Amino acid sequence: MIKAVISGTGLYTPPATIDNDELVEAFNAFVEIHNGQHADEIARGDMEALQPSSSSFIEKASGIKRRHVIDKSGILDPERMAPHIPERGNDEPSVQCDMAVAACKEALAQAGKTAADVDAVIVACSNMQRPYPAISVEVQDALGVDGFAYDMNVACSSATFGLQAAVNSVENGSARSVLVVSPEICSGHLNFRDRDSHFIFGDACTAILVEREEDTASGQGFEILGTSLKTKFSNNIRNNFGFLNRGDEAGIGKPDKLFVQQGRKVFKEVSPLVAETILNQLKGLSLAADDLRRMWLHQANLNMNQLIARKVLGRDADTDEAPVILDEYANTSSAGSIIAFHKHKDDLKSGDLGVICSFGAGYSIGSVVVRRR
Ligand code: CO8
After folding, report:
1. Comparing C-alpha atoms, which of 10, 247, 187, 234 is closest to residue 108?
2. Which one of 104, 125, 156, 205 is the catalytic residue?
3. In the chain, what are the domain boundaries?
4. Using DSSP, how many helices (H) and how many strands (E) does the chain show?
5. What confidence tier does 254 reach under pLDDT thresholds 50, 70, 90?
6. Model pLDDT for residues 264-288, shown as the tens digit of each residue
7. Cis before 133? omega within 30
8. Running DSSP on this structure, what letter comes out for residue 17?
9. Ligand 1 atom having least distance to the Cα of 360
10. Which alpha helices (DSSP H) does 81-219 contain, by range?
11. CATH superfamily of 222-372
12. Where does the Beta-ketoacyl-[acyl-carrier-protein] synthase III C-terminal domain lie (predicted)?
């Protein structure tokens, strides 16, 4: 029987960063402009004045201190509040393709492989910058992979669901190795004028190389002991941007064409579901929570991760057991748990067990138990 292993990972981090103070300053400047422009309606009681944001709230409620973004100036311009990412010609690589290639190259180098060793590319992320041709086929071409490629989206769980698809392809023999790449440009679909969510997301791209065990050196990478996927429909995280928007002019400009969520409900409903999914998965693998050396959790909210770790372990987890990258990256959707894995996996010893677990819109949960070879 063919066994799949994770032999390499890669990360592309946009160089520009925005810290909470910078973001809040721009938001509050926008609020002043907005409230000034609507002073009469506000005075008449026909409109509510927008309230200022605060850095201390952001850090306390989420654990986020800063985020990396593709473009800083557009987001911080109170007259614009959106990244400035110029459209590229069809003969140029797309932005997501550039990010993906950078992350894939690092994953290949880490595994000691080249594009010639790869048969498939899955681009798995929350938003594709165009419907077609598939971004993955462009990435395949840019890397020089002879094989097949497809795009897939399960929001924050795209990378872990993509990982299962890659494992399936390798283990059923349809590919020798598969790159799963997640170019997340969350700043492109975040409403920077919304106080409740303007601080939540950042941009990054991760890549994972999944190969046949027999094609890797002994002791290299991570065995995949099992994947567990779960979905349960919810409207609490939603984005109605789509190709049918032009079919109804009344919808244009509504805030639901960007990310919207009921953050409290998400927190309350998803945390127990995630802990239950991990515990059931461990039970199915005849493992106990205490067997876990590390949990690479989805990086949306620090308090949420602490609660999940406590539910799984029955005690508080330290940052060595459940590493945090959201302070530096914010929520990068499906890239988050993979960034945590990429940055915090090399110190594990042979035989050490860990779980990569993503959760988010859908709801969707993807949990992958791995063992250091
Ligand atoms: N500054 C100051 N005060 C604020 C701010 C702000 N920026 N925002 C809200 N407040 C105020 C509120 O008005 C409220 O005031 P009051 O008590 O007077 O009503 C108070 O602070 C508390 O507000 P909340 O109840 O909203 O605050 P929470 O403590 O719940 O924290 C969080 C908000 C941080 C959003 C939290 O609920 C959270 O993180 N929940 C989990 C969310 C989560 O994990 N979501 C995952 C979604 S991501 C995903 O699945 C991917 C989707 C696809 C990618 C999309 C990319 C764009």
Report:
1. 10
2. 156
3. 222-372
4. 11, 13
5. very high
6. 999 999 999 999 999 999 999 999 9
7. yes
8. E
9. 50
10. 95-111, 135-143, 158-171
11. Thiolase/Chalcone synthase (3.40.47.10)
12. 286-371
Q: Are 181 and 100 in contact (CB under 8 A)?
A: yes
pLDDT digits (tens, 9 = 90+) for 4-14: 999 999 999 99
- Residue 192 has a CB neighbour count (10 Å cut-off) of 24
Dihedral of the alpha carbons of 129, 147, 367, 65, in degrees to the nearest 10? -40
Instruction: Tell me, using a 6 A CB cutoff, whether residue 161 lines ligand 1.
Output: no
Query: Would you call the peptide bond into 12 cis, given omega within 30 degrees of 0 as the criterion?
Result: no
Spacing, Cα 263 to ligand 1 middle (Å): 5
Give the three-state DSSP class for 183.
strand
Assess whether pLDDT exceeds 90 at residue 296.
yes
Element holding 263 (H helix, E strand): helix 263-284
Quote the CA–CA distance of 355 and 225 in Å, as a whole number.
Answer: 10
357 is catalytic: no
